Amino acid sequence: MSIKQALISVSDKTGVLEFAQGLAAQGVKLLSTGGTAKMLRDAGLAVTEIGDYTGFPEMLDGRVKTLHPKVHGGILARRDLPEHLATIEAHGIPTIDLVCVNLYPFAATIAKAGVTLEDAIENIDIGGPAMVRSSAKNYAGVAIVTDPEDYAPLLAEMKANGGALQLATRFGLAKKAFTHTARYDSMIANWLTGLEEGAEAQPTEAAPVPAIFPAKLQLAFDRTEILRYGENAHQSAAFYRDTTPLPGSIAAYTQLQGKELSYNNIADSDAAWECVKAFDVPACVIIKHANPCGVAIDGTLLAAYEKAFKTDSTSAFGGIIAFNGEVGLDVVNAMNERKHFVEVLIAPSFTAEAQAALAAKQNLRVLVVPLGRELNKLELKRVGGGLLVQTADNFTAQASGLKVVTKVQPTAQQIQDLLFAERVAKFVKSNAIVFCGGGMTLGVGAGQMSRVDSTKIASIKAQNAGLALQGSVVASDAFFPFRDGLDVLAAAGAVAVIQPGGSMRDEEVIAAADEHGIAMVFTGARHFRH
């Protein structure tokens, strides 16, 4: 199918002049609208403005421009049906073979501070989506271009094929176009259905406040890769990124080397990265099966790594390691000296020397992820026939918000250790108990059905690693329902505890702490992680 006439009407004008020049150089007639037409004409291109083409001027403040039979007839006429071609010929409607359209910037508009409902409504495109959908429906005869990234490849294909685009190309463009309009409509629907009641009555007043949870939730993700398998070898899997992933999220990774990532690699890498981002000082997090098996902070990444590794060197084998700073050769050498087998290594950057040393480990997956501090707003979990959506657990305890509930007051150093422990416990599967001291985890108990079992396991883990718990502090992700867990950690040597509080037996647990001479603070916020 040769391209003889093209309609260009874009909001995002990135690269469109060069695209139009390339089309004109191949003998394509150009139609355009408003500002796009002016830009092309100013550049010396021969272009027919849409009002001159249809015989009707743009009207209603630009709301009506391309909604005309001479536009849509030229797009929608089937080239394989003589009666369609006879009809448009009888009405003096030439075919339009390529449509280049992108839509009003609704996303950019609603992202502005103070945007009003009227501002948002005026940035809902009507004619654009109609042309995109018409063109995509008739992909057999029309090429629809919505992405500036496609300009150069399309010009090259036309040049190589005497001005024609292959059917497979047009079909691919149509799929992209329908996705484009679907996401555009979804964005509008999510924003409008999420406004508080009464917003429609004051469209030009203060910015309406969007609700956290829209009544109708539309989601959009881009598949980035097909994975080898899912959690298990008999399951299929793929990785999808949010259309606008947070800069500091695991979805923004760049893989420097190693085998392709697996389903479990990505899940564990996310757990490691979210945990290590929580610290403002040099930190190392080692994850195994979605749980931290070693977390530490120190003055350098090397020191943090050495401390994290001590927590549970057995579980660290085959784990995921994340650092929140640039990894140097010293860290890589320390890993090699320990013969520490690692599945994935993550950091914001690696020195050239570190990369050279890591290159010898061809199977090691090395990821670079920008260290963004922006936090996720919502978390989603698929269940049978539905979707659970919640605000993300972005609560982190601060010293000023702690409530001391025991006779013994925690020391300044114990408070720092308690805050570190609470930060780690937030990323441990419930029920979670974490012994800490000196800026490192000493024993981690995760995922047990009872809190006392998690406490016992954490204590055993520390013993297995040869780490003394005398003088340690403990974080619990939720309240102690009975005093038995507190008795276990006291027997292990803990001297201070941080927990949310809120149990019917809080007084019993506090009394047990006083009995053991343990300091206890409440945060008021639990960290269940399922």
What is the overall pLDDT average? 88
Would you count the extended β strands for me? 21
Radius of gyration: 30 Å
Let me know the CATH homologous superfamily of the largest domain: Methylglyoxal synthase-like domain
Largest sheet: 6 strands, mixed
Indicate the CATH topology of the largest domain: Rossmann fold
Q: Which regions contain 5 or more consecutive residues with pLDDT less than 50?
A: none
Largest sheet strand order: 8-13-12-11-9-10
How many helices? The count is 19
CATH class of the largest domain, named Alpha Beta
Beta-strand residue percentage: 15-25%
What is the global morphology?
Answer: elongated
Share in helix: 25-40%
Structural commentary:
The chain has 530 residues and is α/β, with parallel strands linked by helices. The chain has helices spanning 16-25, 34-42, 50-54, 69-76, 82-90, 106-110, 117-122, 127-137, 151-160, 167-193, 263-276, 301-311, 313-316, 329-337, 352-358, 412-425, 451-464, 484-492, 506-516, and strands spanning 5-10, 29-32, 48-49, 98-102, 143-145, 221-227, 237-242, 254-257, 283-288, 291-297, 319-323, 342-347, 365-368, 378-383, 386-391, 403-404, 433-437, 440-445, 473-476, 496-499, 519-522. It folds into three domains: 5-193, Methylglyoxal synthase-like domain (Rossmann fold, 3-Layer(aba) Sandwich); 252-368, AICAR transformylase, duplication domain (Cytidine Deaminase, domain 2, 3-Layer(aba) Sandwich); 399-522, Cytidine Deaminase, domain 2 (3-Layer(aba) Sandwich), CATH 3.40.140. It has a six-stranded mixed sheet with strand order 8-13-12-11-9-10, with helices on both faces. A six-stranded mixed sheet has the order 16-21-20-19-17-18, sandwiched between helices. β11 (319-323), α14 and β12 (342-347) form a beta-alpha-beta unit. The protein is elongated and about 95 Å long. The model has no long low-confidence stretch (mean pLDDT 88).
